[in-house]
Design a protein that fits this description.
2 domains; 365 residues; DNA polymerase, domain 1; binds S-adenosyl-L-homocysteine; TIM Barrel; binds iron/sulfur cluster; alpha/beta
C-alpha cells in the first residue's frame, strides 16, 4: 500500500520528509499545496525542485477524489458522483441554505449497517474512505463553489456510509477539515451523523473535538426502532441515550436527532409525546425528515398533515425542531437516496483536472 500523503496531518508529513532525508519544511509545503492550492499532481508544486517532484510522484502518489458526474436540481442542490483512486465511486451533495452552502460527504463505499429504509446500505460496504478522501470531497466542493464566489460554510458527514464505522478515517478527515493550514473550518460547523454506535460515540466524546453529533433516532422506543434499524439490537435506546449524555457533558454541543417520518410506522402523535419525554435529559434539536422514497422499500412518506401534527407536539413541549426541506429529491440527492454506483468508473480527465487544479476559496466571498 502506497504512503497516503493526502491523509496525513502536517506533523506526519514533516516526519515523512525527515525519513526521506529531506528538510521538515517540505512537509509543510506539501500540506499547503494539497489543501490550500489543491494541486492535482506534483507538477503543480512549483516551489519544489523538479527532481523532488519526480521522486514524490513515484513514491507518494496523490490519491485525490475526482468529480465524474454533476447533476443539478432546480432548487440549486447539486449531486456529484466522485471517483476514488481505485475506481470506486461515492456521492457528495452541495446544498444551498440561507446561511450559505453546506456539503454532505460520504465516509464509506456503501454501508454495512443496513437500516430498513436507506438506499446506501442496499449493497453492503466495500471499503472505508481514507481521511484524505473524506476531507478532499470538501476541498473539491470549495473549488466548485469558488467558481461562483461562494464557499463551504458547513460540512455534514451524512452521505454514504456510517462515519463511526470508519472511526479513524472520520476523525482524521475532521482534523484535516479543521486544520488552519488545511481547510480551516470550525469544528462547530462540522456535523457527524451516526446510526448510534455507542462505544464509538463514547470515544468521540473524548477527542476534544466539539463537532455536532447528529443521531439517526427515527423512533423513541426499542420496538419501533428495532424494526427500522437492526443496529438497535446491539445498542438499544437506553444505552444510546447514556452515550449521548456523555457526549453532551464533554463537548457541550447540543445533540441533533434525525427523525424521518414514515406513514403509519413512526409518525403517530403518541410517539411524538414519547420522543419528547425521551430527549428531555439534555439540550437537543430535532430534525424531522419526511422519508424520501427508495423504491426497494414498501413505505410511504408521512402526509403533510401528519408531519404537522407530529411537529405540533414537539413545538408545544418547547423542543427545538425543524422540518427538513426535501432538497434534491428529483436527482436522488436527498437523505437516504445516495447509493453506491454499480461498476467501477474511469475518471473523466477534463472535468477532473479542471476542478483539481483550481485554487480553493482563499480569496472567495
Ligand atoms: N450513516 C449515518 C449517516 C448517513 S445517513 C446515519 O445513519 O446517521 C444520513 C441520514 O439520512 C440519516 O439520518 C439517515 O437515517 C437518513 N436517511 C436514510 N434513508 C433515508 C430516507 N430514505 N429518507 C430520509 N432520510 C433517510
Ligand atoms: Fe447506513 Fe446511515 Fe443508511 Fe443506516 S441510514 S444504512 S447507517 S447510511
Amino acid at each position: 500500500m502506497a504512503v497516503d500523503v493526502l491523509s496525513m496531518e502536517p506533523a506526519a508529513l514533516e516526519r515523512l520528509m525527515e525519513e526521506a532525508d529531506l528538510p521538515r519544511y517540505r512537509g509543510r509545503q506539501l500540506f499547503h499545496a494539497l489543501w490550500k492550492t489543491r494541486i492535482a499532481s506534483y507538477d503543480a508544486l512549483s516551489v519544489w525542485p523538479a527532481a523532488l517532484r519526480a521522486r514524490a510522484a513515484g513514491e507518494w502518489p496523490l490519491m485525490r477524489v475526482v468529480p465524474l458526474e454533476r447533476q443539478k436540481a432546480r432548487d440549486g442542490t447539486e449531486k456529484i458522483v466522485v471517483g476514488l483512486f481505485d475506481g470506486e465511486q461515492v456521492e457528495m451533495v452541495l446544498l444551498p441554505h440561507r446561511f450559505g452552502w453546506s456539503v454532505c460527504v460520504s465516509t464509506q463505499v456503501g454501508c454495512a449497517i443496513g437500516c430498513h429504509f436507506c438506499a446506501s446500505g442496499l449493497l453492503g460496504k466495500t471499503r472505508n474512505l481514507s481521511a484524505g478522501e473524506i476531507a478532499d470531497q470538501v476541498a473539491l466542493a470549495e473549488v466548485i463553489l469558488a467558481e461562483r464566489g461562494e464557499r463551504v460554510r458547513r460540512v455534514d458527514l451524512m452521505g454514504i456510509g456510517e462515519p463511526l464505522d470508519n472511526y479513524a478515517g472520520t476523525v482524521g478527515g475532521l482534523h484535516l477539515m479543521h486544520d488552519p493550514n488545511g481547510l480551516g473550518l470550525s469544528y462547530r460547523h462540522l456535523t457527524v451523523s451516526t446510526s448510534g454506535l455507542v462505544p464509538r460515540i463514547q470515544k468521540l466524546a473524548e477527542e476534544g473535538m466539539p463537532v455536532t453529533l447528529a443521531v439517526s433516532l427515527h423512533a423513541p422506543n426499542d420496538d419501533v426502532r428495532g424494526e427500522l434499524m437492526p443496529i438497535n439490537r446491539a445498542y438499544p435506546i437506553a444505552r444510546l441515550m447514556d452515550a449521548l449524555a456523555t457526549y453532551w457533558e464533554r463537548t457541550r454541543r447540543r445533540i441533533t436527532y434525525e427523525y424521518l417520518l414514515i406513514d403509519g410506522v413512526n409518525d403517530g402523535v403518541p410517539l411524538a409525546r414519547e420522543l419528547v419525554r425521551l430527549i428531555r435529559r439534555f439540550p437537543a434539536h430535532v430534525n424531522l425528515i419526511p422519508w424520501n422514497p427508495v423504491p426497494e422499500f414498501p413505505y410511504r412518506p408521512s402526509p403533510a398533515a401528519q408531519v404537522a401534527a407530529f411537529r405540533k407536539v414537539l413545538d408545544e413541549a418547547g423542543v427545538s425542531c425543524t422540518v427538513r426541506r426535501e432538497l434534491g429529491q428529483e436527482i436522488e440527492a436527498a437523505c437516504g437516496q445516495l447509493r453506491r454506483s454499480v461498476g467501477k468508473g474511469t475518471p473523466s480527465p477534463p472535468l477532473a483536472e479542471k476542478a483539481a487544479g483550481h485554487p480553493p476559496s482563499e480569496g472567495g466571498a
